[in-house]
Write a structure and sequence with these properties.
6 strands; 4 helices; Rossmann fold; six-stranded parallel sheet; globular
């Protein structure tokens, strides 16, 4: 059985990712904060993992503990992040900085992922061309929308440069 760890599991999108992982036969590890709601995480097969994305040391310890227990995480879906903040710099601290922490902990712990999947946003690249109506293409130059979009694009860069196999999704 393949194992998937999903950050941001207690949120709207994360809880659907957890359900889909279970439906597809994965052993799902739901990455949650201490304060996270468990309202949508009630399937008994879900293994809850407390993750403090603000701490490389704590993340590294969690990943090493999983390895010590003989648990190989095959895929990590990084879905945690913020869409609203009180201070603009919090977009970068959480969306980009916590992503970098996660990547550094993966490397430091020796966690050997098949792939990391990052839930980014169309805001990281910008929308359709307002003059022509042409949809955004990968060959276009990124034109992030606001600090949120810039923080997601920064996180994407960290992932691309990490050396870990990756897939980046930009839901609209």
């Amino acid at each position: 059985m393949k194992h998937v760890l999903i950050t941001g599991s207690s949120g709207f999108i994360g809880s659907f990712l957890v359900e889909e992982g279970i439906r597809r036969g994965y052993q799902v590890f739901a990455g949650i904060r201490e304060s996270s709601s468990r309202r949508w995480l009630n399937d008994p097969s879900i293994r809850l993992v407390r993750l403090d994305l603000s701490s490389i040391a704590d993340l590294t310890a969690v990943f090493k503990d999983l390895c010590h227990k003989g648990i190989q995480i095959d895929y990590l879906i990084h879905n945690a992040g913020v869409t609203r903040v009180r201070r603009k710099e919090d977009f970068h601290r959480v969306n980009a900085g916590y992503t970098l922490n996660l990547l550094q902990a993966i490397t430091a712990s020796g966690l050997d992922l098949n792939k990391i999947l990052y839930m980014s946003s169309l805001a990281a690249y910008g929308g359709a061309n307002q003059e022509t109506g042409e949809p955004v293409k990968l060959s276009d130059r990124p034109s992030p929308v606001g600090e949120y979009g810039r923080s997601k694009l920064e996180a994407e860069r960290y992932i691309r440069e990490s050396g870990i196999p990756w897939l980046i999704l930009r839901p609209t």
